[in-house]
Automatic annotation (TrEMBL):
Matching InterPro entries: nSTAND3, P-loop_NTPase, Restrct_endonuc_IV_Mrr
Name of the featured protein: Uncharacterized protein
Organism of provenance: Chlorobaculum parvum (strain DSM 263 / NCIMB 8327)
Domain Restriction endonuclease type IV Mrr: 5-60
GO molecular function: DNA binding; endonuclease activity
Pfam family, one: nSTAND3
């Protein structure tokens, strides 16, 4: 007999919906919980045939609280005037109770059988065991789970843990990781649950433990050494072994006792060959990768091929909202705090936050953690905590990672986004060389490869194609943590500054903007000498790292599709703007040195003509370097004067930009040649770009370009504007191509929750 106290109001409504749909053979619509106008579920095939179901989860308040709430619903039901009105509640009801309730809602509630109490719902669960199975929190938290271990040899060791897990189970939300892990356990008999801190590894493992207890397995909790599992092993007895954080939490050097890695492999070999044993382990992904590097036996045995990695991407939008709802619903937060979250903007900002994690949700749902926070402040404090993930990563960064791994993360942080593997290697080696010189740090052979193995799959991710590998942070909150870390660690900031290899790194750490943690023109410049910053800019301005462009597949997987680089001209423009806060004399000297690189490029013919006008505009904004700017314009003018050679639209756009940046630099007769060609051949110049435009935005951009030509060169391009409008109409009439056949064989994707559904999910907090 279930009392349903482990279900939130939202979970209870879903259970009632599934049971009644099964019993009545119909599909029920769900409506907003809370102040819903008297409707939770509805079946209305026609205007004169409607069934309305009201769900009242009053297990804690009992019949008196239920009756009080129902009396307030009477006027709403009279306005709805359904043909049939049903009530489902988690409160036990006697025949007299049902008669009293039916009297409130006559004539809409016609028979006592349309009032379902606790006993009725349990009866339906008996009739429909598949519904019971799907609502996992019912049987995971039932008393039968504990009854199955009361008389076992491991009762004293395990019962407290199982009781604790059952209390937590009401907060759990199943997602794809649960079923992925079950598949691994069925295939290999053991499973390593791996992932980043706070992502839900232990919670998933505990739910898998309860799942197997319900199937008749005797639980064995391994606390400190795998030898405990061997001692309690029973032949021909179904047992599930659970080893949480089997590689430890406190450091990165020595995680296993002597020869324990071999003992773990021996135990894995045993369970794989015996149907009666199952083995569940958890660890943090970066610690697992370290262990495979340090312990040769774990690496050679391909120990982690039965690994289930939990990622933030494993949680759908609906999952994340449901996790938040469960934690808040069952928390000791005041009703005022709970109601404050229902506001749409706050709720969606939390669910969709890039740093969302179950650990932060758990922390912010504890009344002891927000003791000084008023209800009005609560949503903003919640979001502020998500904005600052320091607590999530600080301990792992300081205590779990090897020194070389910490260095790798700092170097990766210096790039703005994904970086090509070989460029990352060069930047990492430069940082480690300088770090070794200044801090007497030890360096190991093949250090880069070793660290990459340690971090991949946990803190960093590698996306590959046949020719290149892109490296990026696995979780965006790691970058946020490192930004704050670098803002208060000037020694490491100086080493990073002095070791920069690519201007992309310089741009990544010295782009002027205000961060969450400091209000200075640079991200790590607090406390650094200007000379160090300027030296880094001059040293790197000519070096551009390759930026991998990722193609995202329909299933969310990514692969490298292309590599691009910023131009020297783009780097120079950034350097000029970055130098705004320098004294005028120092700034002038710095910019002149930077422009010398551009002069050499112009002379050798390697300049990017599309970006050169931006350099001229930026240089003209600094009056102190007027001589250098005039020299640059004089050199550049020669490159744009050969207008007879122009064939592509991009050449005309570059000329337009140069004329705007340096008026009167090009002689009038040259401009007249361009004006004549635009009038006579404008349609042909634009034709290729118009014909290949795939959407209206591209066509709008071409239309704006034509308008800019009209202003700069004093011409009329009406024929171009007309052709662009025709192309827009052609886009609207274009027939969509059928989907690729290969999609037919892929698993069907469940529709995720939209904004309205998420807000309605939290309506039960307003009851």
């Amino acid at each position: 007999m279930y009392d349903f106290k482990t279900l939130s109001a939202y979970d209870f409504e879903l259970l009632v919906r599934d049971l009644l749909q099964k019993k009545l053979g119909i599909v029920l619509e769900s409506f907003k919980s809370g102040r819903d106008g008297g409707v939770d579920l509805r079946y209305a095939p026609s205007a004169d045939d409607s069934l309305v179901v009201q769900c009242k989860h009053y297990a804690e308040t009992g019949y008196s609280g239920l009756l009080f709430a129902l009396k307030k619903e009477n006027s709403k039901v009279n306005r709805l005037a359904p043909n049939r009105y049903c009530i489902a509640t988690s409160v036990p009801l006697s025949p007299a109770n049902k008669q009293e309730i039916r009297a409130i809602f006559e004539p809409h509630c016609k028979i006592d059988e349309d009032i379902l109490g606790l006993e009725d719902l349990n009866n339906l669960l008996t009739l429909y065991p598949d519904i019971e199975r799907n609502h996992y929190k019912l049987w995971l938290t039932s008393t039968t789970v504990l009854e199955r271990i009361v008389h076992s040899d491991v009762y004293n060791q395990t019962v407290l843990l199982v009781e604790s897990i059952q209390r937590k189970a009401r907060l759990y939300v199943q997602n794809s990781s649960f079923f992925d892990a079950l598949k691994l356990l069925r295939s290999y008999k053991y499973c390593i649950i791996s992932g980043n801190p706070g992502i839900g590894k232990t919670f998933l493992a505990e739910m898998l433990l309860l799942e197997h207890i319900c199937q008749g397995f005797e639980p064995v909790v391994v606390r400190s050494h795998i030898s405990e599992a061997f001692k309690l092993l029973k032949a021909n007895t179904k047992q599930v072994f659970y080893y949480d954080d089997f590689l430890g939490q406190t450091g990165w050097e020595d995680k296993l006792e002597k020869n324990e890695e071999q003992s773990i492999l021996d135990f894995v070999a045993y369970v794989r060959n015996h149907e009666h044993a199952v083995f569940i382990l958890t660890t943090r992904e970066y610690i697992l990768q370290q262990a495979r590097t340090v312990y040769e036996k774990l690496h050679a045995a391909d120990f982690d091929h039965a690994k289930c990695i939990i990622e933030l991407g494993s949680y759908t939008r609906r999952n994340k909202a449901h996790i938040l709802l469960n934690h808040v619903f069952f928390s000791d937060l005041t009703p005022e705090h709970k109601n404050a979250l229902v506001r749409k903007k706050s709720l969606l900002a939390i669910v969709d936050h890039r740093n969302y994690s179950p650990r932060i949700v758990e922390w912010m749902s504890g009344v002891q953690n927000i003791r000084d926070c008023t209800p009005a402040e609560y949503p903003n404090v919640f979001i502020s905590t998500l904005n600052d993930p320091e607590n999530l990563w600080r301990h792992a960064y300081r205590n779990h990672l090897s020194p070389a791994a910490r260095s790798m993360l700092l170097v990766l942080y210096s790039f703005q986004g994904s970086v090509d593997l070989e460029d990352l290697r060069e930047a990492f080696e430069a940082f480690r060389r300088l770090e070794a010189q200044q801090l007497s740090a030890m360096r190991a052979a093949n250090e880069f490869t070793t660290v990459l193995d340690e971090l991949e799959g946990s803190l960093i991710r590698c996306e590959r194609n046949a020719y290149s590998v892109a490296v990026a942070f696995h979780d965006p909150s790691v970058r946020d943590f490192l930004e704050k870390h670098m803002s208060i660690n000037s020694d490491q900031a100086l080493i990073l500054c002095d070791s920069l290899v690519f201007y992309d790194q310089f741009r990544g750490v010295f782009t002027p903007h205000a961060t969450l943690y400091q209000r200075n023109p640079t991200r790590i410049g607090e406390g650094l000498e200007q000379s160090a910053i300027l030296s880094a800019a001059l040293r790197t301005v000519t070096r551009a790292a390759k930026k991998p462009i990722l193609r995202i597949n329909w299933d969310g997987a990514a692969r490298v599709s292309n590599l691009i680089c910023t131009s020297l001209e783009q780097n120079i423009v950034h350097a000029i703007r970055m130098s705004n806060d320098l004294p005028s004399l120092e700034r002038a000297s710095f910019i002149v040195q930077v422009l010398m690189h551009e002069e050499k490029r112009i002379i050798t013919g390697n300049v990017n003509l599309s970006d050169l006008p931006q350099v001229i505009s930026a240089a003209k904004s600094v009056p102190e370097i007027s001589d250098a700017c005039e020299r640059l314009i004089e050199l550049a003018t020669r490159l744009y004067e050969n207008t007879d050679d122009y064939e592509e639209l991009k050449q005309y756009i570059a000329l337009k930009d140069f004329v705007e940046a340096a008026p009167n630099a090009i002689e009038d007769d040259k401009i007249q040649v361009v004006r004549t060609r635009l009038i006579e051949e404008g349609y042909d110049i634009f034709y290729f770009d118009i014909s290949r435009a795939d959407d209206e935005n591209e066509l709008d951009e071409l239309d704006n370009t034509a308008a800019a030509f009209e202003l700069t060169f004093d011409v009329s391009l009406d024929s171009i504007h007309e052709r662009i409008e025709e192309a827009k109409e052609e886009l609207l009439t274009r027939i969509e191509e059928p989907p690729n056949d290969w999609l037919d064989d892929e698993p069907r994707q469940t529709r995720d929750a939209d904004d309205t559904e998420i807000v309605e999910m939290f309506g039960c907090l307003s009851e």
